[in-house]
Amino acid sequence: MGIVFTGITAALGDPFTVKRVDIRIEGNTITTISDSPLSPRPQDTRIDGDGKLAIPGFINAHTHLPMVLFRGLADDLPLTQWLTEKLWPVEKRLTADDAYWGALLGLVEMIRSGTTACSDMYFHVDAIGKAVLESGMRAVLAYGIIASRLDNHGKSELARAEDAITAWNGAGDGRITAAVAPHAPYTCGKSVWQSVVTLARRYGVPIHTHLAETRTEVADCYVRYRKSPVELLAAWDVFSVPTIAAHCVHVTPSDIAVLAEHNVSVVHCPKSNAKLGSGVAPIARMRAAGVNVAVGTDGAASNNRLDMLSELRFAALTAKAVNEDATLVPAADAVRMATTAGAAAVRIPAGVIAVGNRADIAVLDLSQVETVPVYDPLSSLVYAAGREAVCDVIVDGKFLMRDRALTTIDEDRVKYETKRIAVSYKT
Ligand SMILES: [Zn+2]
Questions:
Q1: Residue 66 has what DSSP assignment?
Q2: How far apart are the CA of 6 and the centre of ligand 1, in A?
Q3: Torsion-angle region of residue 418: left (phi > 0), alpha (psi -120 to 50) or beta?
Q4: Using one digit for the tens of pLDDT, what is the confidence trace for 274-310?
Q5: Global pTM?
Q6: What is the domain-level CATH number for residue 142?
Q7: Does some domain include residue 310?
Q8: Which secondary-structure segment (H or E) carries 52?
Q9: 255 assigned to some structural domain
Q10: Residue 151's domain spans which residues?
Q11: Across-strand partners of 424?
């Protein structure tokens, strides 16, 4: 039994070629892309592609899934105050059950906006992994380490990170992989980072961290180490391991050269950075220097949507606005950052619609009023479409959403449970 799209406009390959084709999916793989009509077999699911656009599913490269529970709990505050006075105290009360239902709510929101994979960093990883497994989503999971030294607490944080790798790397027939996630250079000390590098090498997994997010972080780093956060991690040999660095808002031209030289992937989280008043990451400069720039929403407490479509639109618009240059981050590049570049950053076998690749595809209906008429489908997607246009989502060859109906998650139950849990966080 397979899936056959007939007469669908699709963003194929890398870089994108956008054209009308038929596509066959068998098992978890894209097996045929044809300019001439394919004949669906009786057992195939046939999707009429008229008026629709198929893209590689969005890859949300930096998330903290259960933070949807704190959506709107602490708005309009700068990062340090938001984190230390609001978020960390409520996170201490978060149970594994809370994290499970929160993760499911986050996954529902992601699937509804065409996301097929996420790279998550949080605690209660087993609860998050269970939710991801049930959802059918592809994910890279990591335990968020916060430890200044390798004392008993530091060792226990490293042990939890290792437990997350052994439990989840390769789970769900390979849909789930793992990373090691030291929270940031300002929350983890040198000995902890060195152990992180050893752990990542031992298991062959990437490092996922927050880097150079605020001006204060960078200034404090210079005072403490006489180096920028980027220079510090390079000096500690962290970048000898494939690294996914979220934010990189405050980076100098020489920092950018270091990121490019070491093939560090940057995850641009423009709405989180804007909402926390952190600034705008220089993605045009980073991309021009050859840095792989992906896109992430960050957690819902600082965004407050897990909506990759609005994220990539904001990414394109802010790059144009701050540089006073309309030619920067054109529509196809914005989509590529949120798909192909994301897959390369988090090292998953998806992100490009091509024969032989994993079938992770989002389908959008461009016949909505806000996307009529369509001259350039990727322009319609980036500058006009809302996530309501997403109608089908396929991961590993299986529908997670079909005609806007979720197939793996009981959405009403998830909303009920998360509203129940949220009551305890209101006080
Ligand atoms: Zn984050």
A1: G
A2: 39
A3: alpha
A4: 999 999 999 999 999 999 999 999 999 889 999 999 9
A5: 0.97
A6: 3.20.20.140
A7: yes
A8: strand 52-56
A9: yes
A10: 58-346
A11: none
